[in-house]
Design goal:
The complex is a heterodimer. Chain A is of the alpha/beta class. Chain A has one domain (about 20-320): 3-Layer(aba) Sandwich (Rossmann fold), CATH 3.40.50. Chain A is built from twelve helices and 13 strands. In chain A, strands 2-1-3-4-8-7-13-9 form an eight-stranded mixed beta sheet, sandwiched between helices. In chain A, β1 (about 60-65), α2 (about 65-70) and β2 form a beta-alpha-beta unit. The longest helix of chain A has 15 residues, at about 35-50. Chain B is α/β, with parallel strands linked by helices. Chain B has four domains: about 10-95 and about 450-485, Alpha-helical ferredoxin (Fumarate Reductase Iron-sulfur Protein, Chain B, domain 2), CATH 1.10.1060.10; about 100-200 and about 350-415, FAD/NAD(P)-binding domain; about 210-345, FAD/NAD(P)-binding domain (3-Layer(bba) Sandwich), CATH 3.50.50; about 490-585, Alpha-Beta Plaits (2-Layer Sandwich). In chain B, the strands form seven sheets. In chain B, strands 3-2-1-4-16 form a five-stranded parallel beta sheet, covered by helices on one side. In chain B, strands 6-14-7-8-9 form a five-stranded parallel beta sheet. In chain B, strands 10, 11, 12 and 13 form a four-stranded antiparallel beta sheet that branches. In chain B, a hairpin with a 2-residue loop joins β18 (about 435) and β19. In chain B, α3 runs antiparallel to α4 and α13 (about 220-230) packs across α14 (about 250-260). The longest helix of chain B has 19 residues, at about 400-415. The chains are: A alpha/beta, B alpha/beta. Chains A and B meet through α1 and α8 of A and β19, α20 and α22 of B.
Amino acid sequence: MSYYRPEFRHPDLDVNDIGYTLKDYEGSLSTLCAGCGHDSISAAIARACHEISIEPHRLAKMSGIGCSSKTPTYFLGNSHGFNSVHGRMPSVATGAAMANRDLIYLGVSGDGDTASIGMGQFAHVIRRNLNMVYIVMNNGCYGLTKGQDSATADYGSYSKKGDPTPFEGIDLCAMALQIGASFVARSFSGDKNQLIPLIKAAMSHKGFALIDVVSPCVTFNNNDGSTKSYEFTREHMAATGTMDFVPMKEEIVASYEPDSTQEVTLHDGSVIHLHKLADNVDPLNLSNAFQTVERYRTSGEILTGLIYMDPDSQELHERIKTIQKPLNSLTEVELCPGNKVLLNLNASLR
Amino acid sequence: MKPTDIKDPEYFHKVVDCQYACPAHTPVPEYIRMIAAGRYTDAYMINWESNVFPGILGRTCDRPCEPACRRGRVEEEPVAICRLKRVAADNKGNVSVHMPKIPRKKNGKRIALIGAGPASLTVARDLAPLGYSMDIYDDQSRGGGMMRSQIPAFRLPAEVLNEEVDYVLDLDVVTHFDTTIDSLASVLEKKYDAVFVGTGAPRGKDLKLSGQDEAAANIHIGIEWLASVAFEHIDKIGKRVIVMGGGNTAMDCCRTARRLGGEDVKVVVRSPFADMKASPWEKEDAMHEDIPILDNHVPKGFVTEDGKLVGALFEKVDAVYDENGKRTLVPTGEEPVLIECDDVLMAIGQENSFPWIERDLGLEFDQWDMPVVDPVSFQSTREDVFFGGDAAFGPENIITAVAHGHQAAVSIDKYCNGEDIMGRLSPGVTLISQKMGIHEWSYDNAVPSDLRYIVPQADKSDTLRNRKLEVELGFDRDTGYLEAQRCLNCDVQTVFNEGRCIECDACVDICPTLCINFVENAEEEPLRQALLQPAQNLTQDLYVSEVLPTKRVMVKDENVCLHCGLCAERCPTTAWDMQKFLYSVTKAGWSA
């Protein structure tokens, strides 16, 4: 048995702006099933972070329980991480973000962790517009417990040894739009060309960013009749458009036909180019996004790409006007302002 | 690009960089695995089949395999392939039981082999088991040719040489030593069915500089001097010695001079140090023995006093390269440099010489007075005379001579059987899955990060006192194991079956060296640039699949594949498999 990754990497690996190669964004070797879509998403996250030069110590990986929630071990091995209770990642992430607003929070969850046990938490973290990226590795089944249907399994979809699903599946993107998410996207683990720019944009977005990623379970849900298999997803995938993400520092060299491209500048100065948008699709318009999602759902197509974003959204810290500094940087002077302040406070309440 | 035809044996052959670079195409990873497994005798026999002189080559080979080694492209140093070969030779058991059986009844064909060096011995080794009767002629008193006369004993002990020469001669080859052939016609008169000429490149070049005639007593031609030392006609040299030349013979000359009384020995070479023909390790060994190498010095003449050599004059030059890389040595204009010395050894090259071949025998000679020899069949323009080794196309090295010998043997066998000598069989090829189970492969797919191990040497104070004391001690078994594990097993091929692929990207994501891609097809140049990690090493091929269901193709850049098997490990559908590719060069006597 010699299942481990050699130390050697390609000698010509790109070095990013802060001096790191892709190797510095890798994690441990995956223990998921061979061919699991989740591994591709892990690789996409690592590549996105390398390409936009995220400092590994400035990112915290948050997860719950499930195959998906194991993956933070398999990428960004030099970053912070917290593997929380099943379905409770949003509240742990909220606590962490409240304590230290300077970190980038990357939540990783699954369809069970999000749409079943964690549904309440999911709804409220969206409603509060916590500044985080929330990636759902969505395979429509409970892979870790032998592949039972999950709440996102589509009506009539078959898993490897099951009957057709008798219930309608929950569309996490539609739900997120409803509750007020400020960035909603869907993608496919097998399409990194789409997924990587989405992850980059989500990380630059101020506020809650959901990316629902169809991620086939090769072991229990990649069979004929499944609507979350590699083959079905490829055949039924439609995209809102293509997107390029240009980080703030980079000179913009690509040029597009003015009619076909929309530029969105994010709060940190980065720019998103949306081009080749499908007919009647406008990801910057919420009511259009509702209609688009519904239109594609009824036509049986899997809508991917950026569905909606509000580049001017107010994230949680701004809404509740918290202190600008991370709590761990506060000194005794700020934390214990003294008896006089206390007396004034008490007086104001009398 | 068109899909790669992996049924063409040359495709995967090229992936095994070491074997591909070896003139004799020895299956290097196969024997290295056996060394790691402690199967020294088996490792020896694989070598013996392919290169005939594992113990000799394990000490003296020019190692074209090592600069080619893939390991050298992912870290600093290639695998010490050559010295691992010696580990097999040093630790082997009784190999005589594995030697080919010689038929009691001969096939009635008689072959003359002129010269008893590596080329002729290889021909003898290949033809003896087929029943040929062979006479081998040499003017030396024992077999081995230049391996005996030119390679000093401190690099190649006589017992190693004798053992491996004898394995061949013991195959019922009739020897005629101390026999100088001075007429090819006289050999042809003996009505041999075929004659093989493996007489090497026996003539050392000479410069004929001013003052040379006067100083002749102390100016020696390198290879002749080495031969005189080897046969114990010479046992001393002056204290101050200049060796002219920058090849491996110059290195052997200077190191031998150090052992024969030379205290102040210098190598003086025309070219820049980096351009010298000598192998880097041979230069290192010379410098380790306190021999300075003065580069960019062109010899101009000799200085004598009272008819005796006192020094040599050199002009200093700079190497200037034009846009095509062609070098010119331009004098710096400085005063000539006088280097005082007692003796000079000239090791500036050697050449073929065929005064003993009559020009009316039907053998064509070219404008340089060299015999015209076919580069595939090694047949001359006279159908029953074949050439090989340095005698065929000028000075090369032992392993090239062996490769020639194998091919000449194929030709001789076909010629003697009245077959078309160009109707040669394809190489023997097998491709077998190495999968044993989950996470189990029948080869060590782990890739240790160990750096190249250094071969220990005997103490310099001892080796410089004794010309015959071997300098290199060779790896011990434990170090041999560790060095063997550095091999990347490039012969265990990544074989892709597009029919099974579901394009899940698992192989792309796991590959440590970003070799694997699923992209839209294109012509080679744009395709190389379109890869995750652009494929800049143009000497390494791209492995391209048929078009997949998503209209993309799988493209693998072979350049720095570690053959770790993770792609196959992470593939859910066994579209990738690790399969051992064994390539055997066509041998005499093979039939379809």
